Amino acid sequence: MSKPQAIVTRRWPEEVEVRLTEHFDVQFNRDDEPMSPEALRHAFSAYDAVFPTVTDKIDADVLAVEPMRARLIGNFGVGFNNIDIDAAKSRGLVVTNTPGVLTDTTADLAMTLLLSVARRAGEGERHARSGDWTGWRPTHMMGTQVTGKTLGLIGFGRIGQATARRAHLGFNMRILFFNRSPCAKDVCESLGAEQLGSIEEVLENSDFVSLHCPATPETRHLINAERLAAMKPGAFLINTARGDVVDEAALCHALDIGQIAGAGLDVFENEPEVSSGLLDRENVVLLPHLGSATSETRIAMGNKVLENAKAYFAGAEPPNRVV
Ligand code: DGY
Question: Which phi and psi angles does 268 have, rounded to 5°?
Answer without folding.
Answer: -140, 155
